[in-house]
């Protein structure tokens, strides 16, 4: 899963990104590596792997991973090459979802680029730059498609019609994701790689004072929630400064510091959970002596396609899936006891995978 983090200068975007990547570097729960200076890979925490490793006495755990892209240089005019916008907009086209960090705190020591704190204005500034960039991409694509349309190509005509609808939406300063499309139209739009067609999670960045005073739902946050609800986007509250402090701590110290603020989980954990929900994702599990592993799939994925996540040969030669729920396996304490009690099921090609399924795929190629 790839997430692009965007935001205006001085809203806490880089602090949050650095805290996330530092957390990964320092904690065994979040193994991290740097692909480029602005890309970090963090593994997704999943406590179920700990228990499965105990049951199977496995040599190692393999978590599913998220790539975070820090999209730098987005300022007013980025679509025209201001700041570093153009350079990094190509990176964001490849991500599956956008995390938009917005400043929801007052602090006279941290200058805002527009002179005052207004999260909705900030959102609209970034949105406009992304819309303008998408318009440029779309117009080039439409220009190419027009030749085929004029030659009488029916498919090209249908696709051109979809692009016209999107163009009208963008010209009205509305992101492509807010346009209602059929499933077929959505599939075509994915291939356009429009930034504004991607789902967005707004990260409302609070100050440590807001947390200490229990002012998590301040007026700024309420405005962001209302804006996000209107376009069917997600919202989480984070404190980038706190995440920065947490990144260098051991697990016990982290829990203690979070507890002081009345929090039960870090911003990183909230960010991962909210991203999974926004993208409609879940995990199934495989377990054995060599390793226990989590695999991320879309909710509603059938068994053969899930098997394909491991290897295309397993999908191609799929016969059956041997399945037990994680909870049932833990309740039994071992695979042998679970089998004795008849809790394993053999599922066929139409089986829709469930979150926490522990699976062994039978296949033949």
From TrEMBL:
Keyword terms: ATP-binding, Magnesium, Metal-binding, Nucleotide-binding
SUPFAM superfamilies with a match to the protein in the record: P-loop containing nucleoside triphosphate hydrolases, TGS-like
Binding site for ATP: 10-15
TGS domain residues: 280-363
A cellular component annotation (GO) from this entry: cytoplasm
Pfam families the UniProt entry points to: MMR_HSR1, YchF-GTPase_C
Domain OBG-type G span(s) in chain numbering: 1-258
GO MF entry, a single one: metal ion binding
Free-text function comment from the UniProt entry: ATPase that binds to both the 70S ribosome and the 50S ribosomal subunit in a nucleotide-independent manner.
Protein name per the record: Ribosome-binding ATPase YchF
